[in-house]
Amino acid sequence: MSFVAAWVSDLKARTQFLNTWVAEAIPAVFWISGFYFPQAFLTGTLQNYARKHVVSIDTINFAFKVLAQPPPKRPSDGCCIRGLFLEGARWNPQIGFLDESNPKELYTDMPVIWLIPEENHKKPSGVYECPVYKTLTRAGTLSTTGHSTNYVLAIEVPSREAEPHWIKRGVALICALDY
């Protein structure tokens, strides 16, 4: 698929996602890859939590839960996201942990992840702090907002292996594979 064809296909999917959101209601699961600037969406999620619970936004960060099934309705706090691809590893639903890639498998779909706002969040043990990038390039520059043009956030993915194991493999979550 050419760059332009991939771009047009992605644009159609984005407009369909947003039109469905407008026509039907706030979705139970958000297509994170469909946002041009997902960092703003994530910040908005934290702001909504801070307002609802009357806490300082500076004390809130996300905890994460990989879901076996998409939820039938949206959670009361936080958001569920979809549309991420794992590079360098795969999610193993049988054991509920990050696992080695299967042979000849470059990218795998990541299940829905619930981003749960949490006050004074501490990184739990038994997780890999997996970076999320918009594109496969894994490089970006700082924009005028102070955010990277490519890096989105780090998601704590349950793992039986220590973090250096996955770091050596270059494991990351990617929003878009086409371009």
TrEMBL record:
GO terms for cellular component: dynein complex. It holds the Pfam family Dynein_C. Gene3D superfamilies: 1.20.1270.280, 3.10.490.20. Residues 4-175 form the Dynein heavy chain C-terminal domain. GO terms for molecular function: dynein intermediate chain binding; dynein light intermediate chain binding. GO terms for biological process: microtubule-based movement. PANTHER family: DYNEIN AXONEMAL HEAVY CHAIN 1 (PTHR46961:SF5), DYNEIN HEAVY CHAIN 1, AXONEMAL-LIKE PROTEIN (PTHR46961). This is Dynein heavy chain C-terminal domain-containing protein. It comes from Acanthoscelides obtectus.
